[in-house]
């Protein structure tokens, strides 16, 4: 049933994209303002009943958890950019599709560790897209996070890793986990792309440990993977007693004001 629902949803999105006035849906919530709004004028209450399935695509990345593969959960919002529909899968792959036909353009496999380190199941909420406005390899790039806190950068046109980002296209974010490092980070939500900056939060097993890494917001150079700055939300005098207060879901940015709005979770232990 889950795979059928996913297939139907993608078909509806593809049909909407073909008639929409806007040219992209580049972030988890549509745009930097997180409006979740599409100006697809052809889809209104009077016409929505006329939608028909145009195509379907099945990733195959699904598990009930009864075998050697852990259980998976589908949490991804497709991203439409660069004339392409991009999916992040629960097995930490990227699938690029032709939105008109559903034909597979290319796939990328992060070859990530498939263990539910911080969550009950494997999940991925989406990918993020950054377009420099120039032409060339990796001037348009996608970012995919994994359960073991690796951030992968790949070329949005053809799918190979961007060699100039971090270590051959892969950034280990756990290198900045310096408090109680038995508590691993997970990158389940894609970064928010603001110009050349990636704004990145993380998820963790915040019900398991009392003392955990203090939740922080990481700003990373989208070209190099260098850490630009980070800020924490736990007072320094409390770090030895608690932790998390992290950002595990989507953020919003206003480039005109120069502000980012971050939904911060509760400190540990959350129960």
Please sum up the structure shown.
The protein is 7% helix and 23% strand. With 271 residues, the chain is mainly β. The strands form four sheets. The chain has a four-stranded antiparallel sheet with strand order 1-2-3-4, with no helix packed on it.
Could you explain the architecture of this structure?
With 271 residues, the chain is mostly beta strands. The protein has a single domain (2-261), classed as Methanol Dehydrogenase, Chain A (8 Propeller), CATH 2.140.10.10. It has one helix at residues 2-19; strands at 79-81, 84-88, 93-97, 104-109, 128-131, 140-145, 150-155, 170-172, 192-194, 197-200, 216-221, 227-232, 252-254, 259-261. Strands 1-2-3-4 form a 4-stranded antiparallel sheet, with no helix packed on it. Strands 5-6-7-8 form a 4-stranded antiparallel sheet, with no helix packed on it. A hairpin with a 4-residue loop joins strand 6 (140-145) and strand 7. The radius of gyration is 19 Å and the shape is globular. The two termini are 32 Å apart. Residues 1-20 have low confidence and may be disordered.
């Amino acid at each position: 049933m889950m795979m059928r629902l996913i297939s139907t949803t993608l078909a509806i999105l593809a049909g909407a994209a073909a008639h929409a006035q806007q040219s992209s849906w580049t972030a988890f919530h549509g745009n930097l303002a997180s409006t979740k709004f599409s100006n697809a004028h052809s889809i209104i209450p009077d016409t929505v009943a006329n939608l028909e399935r145009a195509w379907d695509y099945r990733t195959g990345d699904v598990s009930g958890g009864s075998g050697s593969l852990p259980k998976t959960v589908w949490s991804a919002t497709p991203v439409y950019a660069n004339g392409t529909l991009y999916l992040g899968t629960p097995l930490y792959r990227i699938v690029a599709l032709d939105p008109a036909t559903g034909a597979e353009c290319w796939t990328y496999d992060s070859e990530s560790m498939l263990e539910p380190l911080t969550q009950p199941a494997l999940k991925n909420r989406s990918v993020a897209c950054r377009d420099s406005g120039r032409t060339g390899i990796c001037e348009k790039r996608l970012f995919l996070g994994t359960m073991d806190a690796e951030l992968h950068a790949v070329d949005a046109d053809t799918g190979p890793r961007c060699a100039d980002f971090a270590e051959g296209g892969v950034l280990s974010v756990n290198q900045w986990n310096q408090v109680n490092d038995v508590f691993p980070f997970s990158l389940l939500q894609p970064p928010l792309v603001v110009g050349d900056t990636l704004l990145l939060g993380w998820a963790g097993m915040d019900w398991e440990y009392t003392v955990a890494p203090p939740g922080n917001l990481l700003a990373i150079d989208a070209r190099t993977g260098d850490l630009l700055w980070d800020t924490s939300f736990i007072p320094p005098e409390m770090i030895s007693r608690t932790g998390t207060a992290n950002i595990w879901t989507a953020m919003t940015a206003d480039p005109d004001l120069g502000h980012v709005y971050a939904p911060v979770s509760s400190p540990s232990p959350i129960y």
